[in-house]
Specification:
This protein is α/β, with parallel strands linked by helices. It folds into two domains: about 90 residues, no CATH class; about 35 residues. It contains three helices and ten strands, in the order ββββββββαββαα.
């Protein structure tokens, strides 16, 4: 679907170009400070490329489009590039909590704590050895 605002394309192994793909009704309403169009597809609604980031969507046909020079009256070329009438828009609103990265797993937290403690001990030992080194004339 032609829902994404980003027009980047990736060269496929077969030599074809493929752009960002968003699932039907994958664009959710967000505030304009998140995406100027007012719509964004969260990571789980982006079907290509895999492991994509959140993607801003085009404006919804029939609504004012802040992406156009005159948001109340887009030109035909602006409409072709920035507005879509496809089945891109869902009804759920994405909250700021959904935009945050998933929390680290508990075992990752414990591992990071051990690494930090170990690094601190190594630094203390190095400082101790450097200060105890005999001075040479």
């Amino acid at each position: 679907m032609d829902c994404g605002l980003n027009t980047s394309e990736v060269l496929q192994p077969g030599g074809t170009m493929r752009g960002i793909e968003i699932v039907p009704e994958g664009c959710q309403a967000v505030s304009e400070d998140v995406c100027k169009s007012g719509y964004m597809a969260p990571t789980e609604n982006v079907s290509f490329p895999e492991n994509s980031l959140n993607q801003c969507c085009k404006c919804k046909e029939g609504e004012t489009c802040p992406l156009c020079k005159n948001p109340e009256a887009c030109t035909e070329s602006e409409k072709e590039e920035l507005v879509t009438s496809e089945d891109c828009f869902g009804s759920a609103k994405v909250t700021p909590m959904q935009l945050q990265l998933p929390p680290l797993k508990q075992e990752e937290d414990v591992t990071m704590t051990y690494i930090m403690i170990g690094g601190g001990i190594v630094i203390l030992i190095v400082l101790f050895l450097v200060t105890r080194r005999p001075k040479t004339p």
